[in-house]
Design brief:
Order of helices and strands: HEHEEEHEEEEEEH
Strand order of the largest sheet: 1-2-7-6
Structural class: alpha+beta
Oligomer: single chain
Strand content: 15-25%
Radius of gyration: 15 Å
Length: 169
């Protein structure tokens, strides 16, 4: 469970191979059914890429924080009332794990999800325990911008650039 103080500490850090910020959630209740597959694909890509951290981050938990803009340093309410699929975190987690099991190998089985209220705004946090393996796609994954082939190992490219150039330290 993430405390408000732990969240505040995360928000002070730069994005890295184990920390990703998103200003807003990937979809809402008005997203068309034809767009949902791509939206889920984009979300799954981000979760999988976080799980595939780097050697310098072995043993470190990974976090996807929804509701924070790194560029403006502002907290944004996720707007849970406009996203029915997030009304039950338990049900959403079950759906997420099922989707991840369908797309990844080895099976992706551990992820914690919670809302934390900060400055009267709901922030959504996905916490992924440090994996003991590399996760790869076992079937094609379509996102909003590309199709990723089976066998692909997804990583956070901008984090790699930062970590190899020392900009993130």
């Amino acid at each position: 469970m993430i405390t408000k103080d732990q969240l505040k500490d995360l928000l002070k850090k730069n994005e890295s191979p184990v920390l990703e910020f998103k200003r807003e959630w990937y979809w809402n209740d008005s997203t068309s059914p034809s767009e949902m597959s791509d939206k889920w694909g984009e979300f799954l890509k981000d979760i999988i890429s976080l799980s595939n951290g780097y050697l310098g981050f072995v043993g470190v938990h990974r976090y996807l924080v929804i509701g924070f803009s790194e560029s403006t340093q502002e907290i944004h309410d996720v707007g849970i009332k406009k996203i029915k699929s997030l009304n039950s975190i338990k049900a959403f987690r079950k759906t997420l794990i099922q989707k991840l099991e369908g797309y990844t190998q080895p099976a992706f089985i551990s992820i914690d999800i919670e809302f934390v209220k900060l400055d009267e705004k709901e922030v959504l946090i996905f916490e992924i325990p440090s994996p003991g393996h590399i996760t790869e796609l076992k079937k094609e994954l379509k996102t909003k911008t590309r199709v990723l082939d089976a066998g692909t190992v997804i990583i956070i490219a901008h984090a790699l650039l930062h970590s190899t150039t020392g900009l993130n330290e």
